[in-house]
Amino acid sequence: MARMSLARRKEALTGYLFIAPWLIGFLVFVAGPMLWSLYASFTNYDVTSTARWVGWDNYRRLFFDDDLFWISLYNTGFYVLFAVPLSVLTGVLIAVLLNQQIPGQRIFRTIFFLPKVLTGVAVLLLWLWVFNPDFGPINVFLRAIGVSTPPLWFADPTWAKPALIIMSMWGAAGGYIIYLAGLQGIPRHLYEAAMLDGASPVRQFWAITVPMMSPTIFFKLVTGIAAAFQFWETSLIVSEGGKGGPSYSTLFYGLYMWQKAFGEYQMGYASAMAWVLLIITLLLTGLQFWVSRRWVYYEGEAR
Amino acid sequence: MTVQPNTPATTALPRRRMNAQVAQNVFWKAVAFALLAAISAAVLFPALWMLSTALKADTQVYANPPIWIPDPLRFDNFAKAWSLAPFTRYAFNTALYAIAVVFGTVLSSSLAAYGFAKLRFPGRDVLFAVLLSTMMIPGMVTLIPQYILFSKLHWVGTYLPLVVPSFFAGAFFTFLLRQFFMGIPNEYSEAARVDGASDFWIWSRVILPLSKPALATVAIFTFEGAWDSYVGPLLYLNDEKLYTLQVGLQFFRTATAVQWQYLMAAALLVMLPVIVLFFTFQKYFVEGASVSGGVKG
Questions:
Q1: By CA distance, what is A38's nearest residue in B?
Q2: Which of B192, B172, B74, B85 is nearest to B131 (CA)?
Q3: Do A24 and B246 touch (CB under 8 A)?
Q4: Mean pLDDT of A77-85
Q5: B136-179, pLDDT tens digit by residue?
Q6: Residue of A nearest to B18 (CA)
Q7: Which member of A74, B124, B245, B290 lies 3.0 to 4.6 Å from A177 by CB, making a disulfide possible if both were Cys?
Q8: Helices A67-98 and B15-54 meet at what angle, rounded to 10?
Q9: pLDDT value at B12 more than 60
Q10: How large is the ipTM?
């Protein structure tokens, strides 16, 4: 490094001081813990006794001896596969509709944002009441239209995950904001030209809206999939005592890891699960970036 | 036909086709309005059901078909629900915790953001890339080691594990504030620097006052996050006196035989501060959400 002038050196020192809160936090709460967790995944650490090195044993047990690991991975994959695309669709649909000049726009915008505001345990308890098999409005309605034995929702292995996916779509309504911002960045002349050519609104949507929105949709897919792989706190609350629901139907990856770590204090085993999740997340993100070259359109890029 | 970009549409098109297009437009707007109304109803439906239940007498809670407008309106359900668990204490705990987290986050993230946005030092860009990449790390990877760390420090059973990390600048809010600070012209700080002002002075007297909207966004989202957080408090607070509202609410549900009218009344009261915050600072909520995009799923 070339010798820096006194002023430059002073600026550099000041810079490090300003970012010190983040840098220390990164080392103490992120990097350090990650390295420790990688180490712990090769031990049988249980908090009270000292850790014993067991090599690949935790990973071998996960993949070959643990049915619940595969069940939780399946449940999580199922959730990701349905909740993420449906959430993106919900958000895009609301944004496209709101982007028209329509009376009552301001009120609609406020209503659709509500799910982003209403969060926490209170809302989950509300959903338990909405999905209540006997008195919940959904089943009352289903019985009224002639469904004699409506689903038991959270008490039914087949319907517990769909109930959670319906909840996720409700929560995703508030996500319209980011798509609306994207839509408003699309130059109007593209639509005008398409209309002169007689393109129907549906055709305009696929030929203009989707390609122009693809960077936003891609961003939401990458972050949404990463987040959905960590979905489990809801299940801790709605599946009585966090056991994972009937027949382990809502035993999500994170919930199983939580049970192993803080229910059974198998910290080494749970750490191995955490690293498997990290690797899955990295692989999927990488895969999405690779696939994105085929469908994501960036303005200013000659094709 | 060929499109002439410079020809106004009105003259280029035959009148009949214009009328057809206007009709088509009106049709599509009607369809859009109907869809929006239907989706709004679906979005509002659970919230209205909650409000309705919270105001019911227990005889009406399980009525079939459901009663949407209770008679009489039992406003005393709220007082009753609040007294069924020590919610006043929980509310006090939660408020203190949320305020401490907001203070820590705004202070530390704005310091770090200033460093990344306005100062030059070796390795800055690499460190910033590291900051960005930490946003992709699943929280579950650090959950266990952080718990072990805090238990070794004998912090489990106190608020320290929940509050202290917020004083060490989270990646996302640092990123958000840096973006905002980059947009503030350097002339302001240069003028102050020529007058002999330190960077700390510039940060506190120039940058922060100019960044009130961004700081408000960070504060509001941090407050909401802390107010609603469940797993952290559940993990670290094992004494009932220290419970937050979210933990208290969940235990209130499992401990008593479920009386839905009280449960919904309590749940509404717990959500109330965030609802009030939303209607007061709607603009910032919406701005923050459009920047944050995927972060809150």
A1: B141
A2: B172
A3: no
A4: 97
A5: 899 999 999 999 999 999 999 999 999 999 999 999 999 999 99
A6: A196
A7: B290
A8: 130
A9: no
A10: 0.90
Which residue type is seen at A85? P
The Cα B169–Cα B147 span in angstroms is: 19
Establish if A100 touches chain B: CB-CB under 8 angstroms.
Answer: yes
Q: Which of residues 134-153 of B touch A (CB under 8 A)?
A: 134, 136-149, 151
Q: Which among B144, B174, B146, B177 is positioned nearest to B162, based on CA atoms?
A: B146
Q: Tell me if A238 sits within 8 A of A124, measured CB to CB.
A: yes
Burial class (CB in 10 A: 0-12, 13-18, 19+), A86: middle
Task: Give the predicted TM-score (pTM) of the model.
Answer: 0.90
Within B183-244, where are the H helices?
186-194, 199-202, 208-210, 212-228, 231-236
A16 to chain B, closest Cα gap in Å: 7
**CA–CA distance, A285 with A221 (Å, rounded to integer):** 9
Q: Using the structure block, give the residue that is written with the tokens 């959400």.
A: B289
Considering only CB atoms, B165 lies closest to which of A29, A109, A123, namely A29
Each residue's pLDDT tens digit, A52-78: 999 999 999 999 999 999 999 999 999
Supply A77's token pair: 């994959």
